[in-house]
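Exercise 7b. Backbone tokens:
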């Protein structure tokens, strides 16, 4: 599925920010994940590695705009590329084992250290500290959504 005009405009603006050197018409392949996240996508590290490998066909470590467009288009087409509100609410309900409407540190730790790209205990502690805005030791839905979409 091709990118919308707005998505293409956003992509071109982001590409300009990552051009190295400025105005060169290329960006480092190592910045692809950051660019994708800046555009609102949430690919896994594996998806980023695959997109980077496929986009940098000549292996020179630099991506032209056309190569970045291909990588972003592939990411947009991916089922895991962009989180929706429905996805977030469904995930929150799955993680909220006791149905309390908030995630305890133990509930969140259990999910983040066993599912998907596993996080270390230190990474989970850091995420909890950042996400628990009101400092009650629990993550409510608003905090959960804000952290995942940041």
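Sequence design result:
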């Amino acid at each position: 599925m091709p990118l919308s005009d707005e998505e293409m405009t956003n992509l071109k603006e982001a590409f300009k920010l990552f051009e190295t050197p400025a105005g060169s018409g290329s960006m480092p392949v190592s910045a692809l994940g950051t660019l994708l996240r800046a555009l609102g996508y949430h690919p896994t590290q594996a998806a980023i590695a695959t997109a980077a490998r496929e986009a940098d066909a000549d292996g020179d470590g630099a991506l032209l705009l056309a190569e970045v467009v291909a990588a972003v288009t592939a990411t947009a087409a991916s089922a895991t590329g962009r989180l929706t509100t429905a996805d977030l609410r469904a995930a929150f309900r799955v993680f909220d084992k006791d149905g309390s409407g908030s995630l305890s540190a133990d509930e969140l730790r259990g999910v983040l250290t066993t599912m998907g790209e596993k996080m270390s205990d230190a990474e989970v502690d850091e995420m909890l500290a950042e996400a628990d805005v009101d400092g009650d030791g629990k993550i409510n839905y608003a905090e959960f959504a804000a952290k995942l979409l940041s």
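Instructor comment: The domain at 85-148 is CATH 1.10.238.10 (Recoverin; domain 1). The helical segments are 5-18, 32-38, 45-55, 65-77, 85-95, 105-114, 121-131, 141-148.
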